[in-house]
Amino acid sequence: MNPTGSFKVRGGLTLASRLDADERSAGLVTCSTGNHAQSIAFGARVAGTRAVIVMPACAPSVKVDAVRALGADVVIEGPTLAEASAHARHLAETSGMRFVNPGNDPAIIHGHATAYLELLQSNPGIDEIYVPIGSGSGAAGACLVRDAIAPHVRIIGVQAVGASAAYESWVGEAEVSREANTRVSGLATGCGFATPQSVLRGSRGTAGNVGLAAFELVPDDAIDDAAHLLATHAHLLAEGAGAASLAGLRARQERDGEAQGGSVAVVVTGGNVSTDEWKRLASR
Ligand SMILES: Cc1ncc(COP(=O)(O)O)c(C=O)c1O
User: Fold this and answer.
1) Across 145-196, where does the E strand assignment appear?
2) Which residues pair with 143 in a beta bridge?
3) What is the pLDDT of residue 260?
4) Which domain-ending residue is among 62, 84, 99?
5) Contacts of 192 (CB under 8 A, 6+ apart)
6) Which domain holds residue 241?
7) Which atom of ligand 1 is nearest to 131's Cα?
C-alpha cells in the first residue's frame, strides 16, 4: 500500500534524500528483480536525477513495465540477479554513476526501518514480527528499530527454501552464495549481504534479543497457500515475497502447535503480483 506497491520505496526515498550534488548529477545505477528497482526509480525521480536499472531476464514483466513507467532506463542483462549485478557494477565504473548496492547500503536499511518504527510505535503490544528475507535489508531495519525501542520483541526471518543464501550466511557466520531456485522474485537472492548480516547475527551469546531470534525456510507452495489465505480471508493482495511472512508463521505453528501465545505481526511487504502469481491464485 506504499507508493510502488512495496516497502522497498522507503529505502529508495531515504537514499535519494541523502545524495550529494555530485551524486545527483551523475545519477544512480542498481540491479534488482523489481521492487528495489521501482524504489530507486521512484527515489531518483523525486530527487530529480537519472536512474539506470539492470534487471535479469527472469524479472516479472509487470515490474519491468512499472520501472519504465517511473522514468528509469531499464537494461535487461543475464538470466539471474548475479549477472545483472555484475553488469550494473560495470556500468557504474565506466559511467561514474553511483552504484546502489541493493542489500548493503545503510541508507536503504534505514529507510526500510521506518516501516518497523511505524509498526512498533502504533502497536506497542507486539511480541514477535515475521519478516521476509531476500538480502536481509528489511529485516536488519526491523532489528535496528527493535533494539532501539522494543528490545523484548523477537524478529523472525522467513526465506524461500530454494534460495537460502541469507539463512546459510546467518547460521554459518560468513556470507555465502547459494542457488536462487524459487518462483518468488522478491526472495530470489543468491548471496548473503554483509551489512544486514552483521545486524541479523547480533552478538550471540549475550543476554537480550539482539539480531534475529529465528529463521523459517518455507517452500514456494506454502508461500502460494499464504497468498491465497491473505486474499480470501484478509482481502489483501500479496505477491509471493509479501506472503512469505505468513507462510513462516504457519510453518512454525504446524511444527510447534498454536500455543505460542503473544501478539504476532506478519509484515506483508509487497503487492506487485506477477501474471503467474495471479494465475496460481485464481486456479485454487
Ligand atoms: C515484496 C518484498 N518483500 C521482501 C523482500 C525481501 O527484502 P530484503 O531484500 O530487504 O530482505 C523483497 C525484496 O525485493 C520484496 O520485494
Assistant:
1) 154-160
2) none
3) 64
4) 99
5) 136, 165, 166, 168, 169, 170, 174, 175, 176, 177
6) 106-282
7) 4
The pLDDT assigned to 207 comes to 47
* pLDDT of 204 over the 60 cut: no
Q: Is 56 in the pocket of ligand 1 (CB under 6 A)?
A: no
* Centroid of ligand 1 to alpha carbon of 68 (angstroms): 20
CB of 186 closer than 6 A to ligand 1? yes
Same domain, 35 and 161: no
For residues 171 and 272, state if they share a domain. yes
Domain final position from 47, 75, 99: 99
pLDDT, tens digit, 9 for 90 and up, residues 71-98: 999 999 999 888 999 999 999 999 999 9
pLDDT band at 29 (very low <50, low <70, confident <90, very high): very high
Residues 6+ apart with CB under 8 A from 138: 7, 8, 112, 115, 131, 132, 267, 269
Express as a percent the part of the chain with pLDDT over 70.
96
Domain total in the chain: 2
The answer to whether the CB of 237 is under 6 A from ligand 1 is no
Ligand 1 near 38 CB (within 6 A): no
C-alpha 187 – ligand 1 centre gap (Å)? 6
CA of 133 to the centre of ligand 1 (A): 6
211-258: pLDDT as tens digits: 999 999 999 999 999 999 999 999 999 999 999 999 999 999 999 887
Task: Determine whether the shortest distance from the Cβ of 137 to ligand 1 is under 6 A.
Answer: yes
| CA gap 16, 29 in Å, rounded | 12
How many residues in the chain? Answer: 284
Which atom number of ligand 1 is nearest to the Cα of residue 33? 14
CA of 166 relative to ligand 1 center, distance in Å = 12
CATH of the domain at 206: 3.40.50.1100
